[in-house]
Design brief:
This protein has two helices and nine strands, in the order ββββββαβαββ. With 122 residues, it is an alpha+beta fold. It has a single domain, classed as Aminopeptidase, CATH 3.40.630.30.
Length: 122
């Protein structure tokens, strides 16, 4: 796999299949979950998302994955990030706040229900 398709962080290899599909694995190839991103139709923006398997939660891996994806995007001149988080997911809301995201709106997604949409520009 070409080097530009693997985002390496301290503990993770984020394998980039497409901008919309990534897989996060520990250095021993154990899959920890599915970070991901979606192009928003704007060349300077990407929507980030993730899900972490229960036994790997509360270890900072989602933060590491999101930071790795943002660093990768910034190297490609993308500086605007969006996350959509369920109001009933305090851990993800706390992570978004820690990373500097600010609420821009609330929506009701057809699949996921109510979501808080947050944005980070930098």
């Amino acid at each position: 796999m070409p080097d530009d398709q693997v985002i390496r962080t301290a503990r993770l290899d984020l394998v980039l299949f497409t901008l919309e599909r990534l897989d996060a694995v520990l250095s021993d190839s154990t899959s920890i979950g599915k970070p991901g991103s979606n192009a928003l139709g704007a060349p300077d923006a990407v929507e980030l998302g993730y899900s972490v398997e229960p036994k790997f939660r509360r270890q900072g891996l989602a933060e590491e994955a999101i930071r790795g994806m943002m660093d990768w995007a910034r190297a490609r001149s993308i500086f605007r990030f969006i996350v959509s988080v369920s109001p009933s997911n305090p851990a993800s809301l706390a992570l978004a706040a820690k990373l500097g995201f600010s609420e821009i709106t609330q929506v009701v997604d057809e699949e996921d229900g109510p979501e808080i949409v947050l944005e980070l520009r930098k």
